[in-house]
Specification:
The chain is an alpha+beta fold. The chain is 48% helix and 18% strand.
């Protein structure tokens, strides 16, 4: 197994992950030749990678279709992720209260290095979540309210480095893609303590997010809501108040939970 000349990554592992990502993004099973062509890999190399992924349970070979699809182990990984990012019951209750008070889908997103990942969702048939914003979502930080909040809280150099890596693609026609305009948005987020996106992630839907901090005052997550843009304009201050109060309550819950751990101030 050779190392990547620029990053030091194992090239075989990097290629295997690229195959897995490609199959995961496809609408259905894919034949080996299509995977080989799409990723620019030699066909024998593709078969070796596919065999390895099938053996590990990450892919399954559908022999009758002569194609490959995701395997059971991917679901095991997804359940593991949910366990690892699960929020404490106190934060779940706070999110539920925000959902009821704002009459909107409510989210708790947690900070992991330079990713904001959705860790909990409170919704109902009358106020459903944005379809893709399920537990585990972490993409498009420039186009989501909790993503903008994270970018505003990061050191400027770290935020720019992250945007260099993710880019600022247009998710909708309303997405802010110009880095100078985005920087102005982030400055406003820092001054108001609230991130807002209007029609940037999904047309006719808007989101608000407020920061959650730990006992040391460090940014650790966000309370957010999503709702139709027309409703946000009609109920802006009611919704904003619910989000801000929710963030305060979540901050209190996170801080109290940390100080209550063994060795952190209690016997």
């Amino acid at each position: 197994m050779s190392s990547h000349p620029r990053t030091g990554l194992l090239q075989s592992v990097e290629r295997a992950m690229a195959v897995l990502d490609h199959v995961a993004a496809a609408p259905g099973p894919l034949p080996a030749k299509e995977i080989s062509r799409a990723l620019g890999l030699a066909l024998p190399t593709t078969y070796h990678l596919l065999t390895t992924l099938v053996t590990g349970g990450y892919l399954v070979h559908l022999t009758e279709e002569h194609a490959y699809a995701l395997g059971h182990h991917v679901d095991d990984l997804a359940r593991g992720l949910r366990r690892q990012i699960a929020v404490p019951p106190e934060v779940e209750r706070v999110t539920a209260v925000v959902h009821r008070q704002a009459h909107a889908a409510a989210y708790y997103a947690t900070l992991r290095n330079t990713e904001m990942i959705v860790a909990h969702v409170a919704e109902c048939p009358a106020h459903p979540r944005i379809r893709v914003l399920d537990v585990g979502f972490h993409r498009a930080p420039h186009a989501t309210a909790f993503g903008k909040l994270m970018l505003a809280m990061l050191e400027p150099g770290a935020a720019e480095e992250l945007l260099d890596a993710t880019g600022t693609p247009a998710v909708t026609p309303g997405t802010v893609t110009d880095r100078r305009l985005l920087r102005r948005q982030l400055a406003q987020v820092r001054s108001t303590g609230l991130a807002i996106e209007v029609d940037e992630f999904q047309a006719d839907l808007s989101c608000l997010a407020a920061p959650v901090t730990d006992a040391a005052g460090r940014f650790v997550g966000a309370v957010a809501v999503s709702l139709p843009t027309a409703q946000l304009r009609a109920r802006r201050w009611t919704v904003e108040r619910a989000v801000r109060l929710g963030a305060v309550r979540a901050t209190r819950a996170v801080s109290l939970r940390a100080t209550a751990r063994p060795g952190r101030g209690q016997p």
